[in-house]
Amino acid sequence: MTRRTDRILIVEDERSMNEILRILLESEGYEVTSAMDGEEGIEFLEKEIFDLMITDIKMPGVDGFEVLRKARELSPDTLVIMITAYGTTENAIEAMKLGAYDYIHKPFKIDEIRIVVNKALEKRRLRKELEILREEIRTTYRLENIIGRSPGMQELLNTIPKIAQSSLNVLITGESGSGKELVARAIHNLSPRSEREFVAINCATLPEGLLESEMFGYMKGAFTGADQNKEGLFEIADGGSIFLDEIAEMPYALQAKLLRVIETGTFRRLGGTTDIKVDVRVIAATNKDLKEALKTGGFREDLYYRLNVIPVHIPPLRERKEDIPLLVEHFLKKLDAGRIRFAPETMRTLVNYRWGGNVRELENVIERIVLLSEKELILPEDLPPELQEVTFRKGRLPELTEGGVDLDEILEEIEKGYIKRALEITSGVKTEAAKLLNLSFRSFRHRLYKYGIGAEERDREPVETGGEGNP
Fold it and tell me: CA-based angle 197:201:205, to the nearest 5?
């Protein structure tokens, strides 16, 4: 479908031909500007930006070749189609050397111009979309998008630029959801290989035969359904990097073929007889202990040492709790949800949660809150159920690490959790809730005031008289 924002410049000194081209292209939905000679065409190029230019070659004064040169100088992204009634091989070669997209002889059919123009603009759009995609990838996987101020993350951030400058293989370890691919892409994007491809494959998601064909490609007839030759990911990544995620899941037989590629830089496609030479940096990742796999015979020792040239470990989120507020802020910014704030007690709940799914789980929780919440201030009760009582449920107390904990905060959260639970059990009847907690009503009420729980119902409770319960 044609985009009406596509702008075309026609440079043609023959008035009838100029008019025919203008009417044709406007009927296709393009925005058309026409110039009657080369000098006027250059004036338009100096003032405006065009997606495509169609120019005659033979014109009085400034000819089409000079207009083409000026277009390449002023607007390199503008595609140029040359047309002429005096077509020669020399002219065609000269036009292509100067950067023309295509060359058409007069007389031409209307459909011929239409097809060439549509193809040219489609190519330009695809090229622009690819540039945008590549820039988005570079932006997403820049080093500054790896968030953390904890000692472990600071060490990682300081190490990545040094690792990136070498071509040695890297083995990234860390739990699922900790950001192993993010680190792998950052290493690639900061390396001299950044202009070449970064390709990723998850070794755990494909059966052995399919994984091998994806990695190394195949020749026509190599197996049933192989009706044409296919490049493998190692060919596509030539000069760049390949990321082998969940490397521990790679079948043992395939490990030997991977080892050969690493050692010799060559491989053969399935069904092929010719060695293909490549220069690829291998970045592997796993959430398992490969040393244990070596002991059980599930992983080749020689491959392990070829991959583990530069080991990189990403600490789990529960070991870097000080990074959680930074990550929350980062995700809110990423989601364009700056209006949302987390109350201090809510943030403490997020910090104290164990995050078995690591950064990925935290991001999913923040996305869910942004999507479903209509409030700007997020309270603990607005969190998913599994997080709301994290601080007092059995076995869910925050872990004591070298970074320490705030014991007073923890005890307060435990107390608040039990008070809220007691009120739930007693359907909000405070005198009964106090009995469940073996507290006097006066002591219970003091805690309600202290924590701001049930403030709207303070005047609904019967007043006790006498003794400690006397207000």
Answer: 165
> Which residue, chain included where needed, has tokens 């690639």?
188
Q: CA-CA distance, 314 to 177, in Å (whole number)?
A: 10
> In 3-state terms, what secondary structure has residue 245?
strand
For 353, what's the count of Cα atoms within 13 Å in the CB-facing half-sphere? 25
Question: Do 322 and 276 share a structural domain?
Answer: no
Helical segments of 197-244, H only? 208-216, 233-236
**Angle between helix 64-74 and helix 89-97 axes, rounded to 10 deg:** 10
With a CB cutoff of 8 Å and minimum separation 6, the contacts of 352 are: 321, 390, 391, 398, 410, 413
Which residues are within 8 A (CB) of 60 and not within 5 positions of it... i.e. 6 or more apart?
13, 37
In a domain? residue 217? yes
CA 348/CA 263 separation, integer angstroms: 50
Q: What are the average pLDDT values for consecutive 10-residue runs of the chain, which has 471 residues?
A: 69 91 90 93 90 90 90 88 75 77 83 88 81 62 78 92 94 95 93 92 92 93 86 93 96 95 94 92 95 92 96 94 93 90 90 90 95 90 77 53 72 84 86 90 89 58 42 35
**In terms of Cα–Cα distance, which of 27, 33, 28 is closest to 7?**
33
Q: Using an 8 Å Cβ cutoff, are 309 and 168 in contact?
A: yes
Q: pTM of the prediction?
A: 0.60
The residue range of the domain holding 251 is: 168-314
How many helices, marked H, and strands, marked E, lie in the chain? Answer: 19, 14
Round to whole Å and give the CA distance between 220 and 446.
80
Domain count, the chain: 4
Extract the tokens encoding 171. Answer: 């083995």
* Token pair for 356: 């078995």
Does residue 79 contact residue 99 with C-beta atoms inside 8 Å? no
**Pairwise CA distance, residues 159 & 271, whole Å:** 41
Question: Which residue's structure tokens are 């959680």?
Answer: 324
Last residue of a domain, one of 86, 117, 135: 135
Do both 69 and 114 map to the same domain? yes
Alpha carbon separation from 221 to 218, 273, 276, 411 (Å, rounded): 8, 13, 18, 69
Q: What secondary structure does DSSP assign to 297-341, as a single string?
A: TSS-HHHHHHHTTEEEEPPPGGG-GGGHHHHHHHHHHHTT-TT-E
Residue found under tokens 């003794």? 467
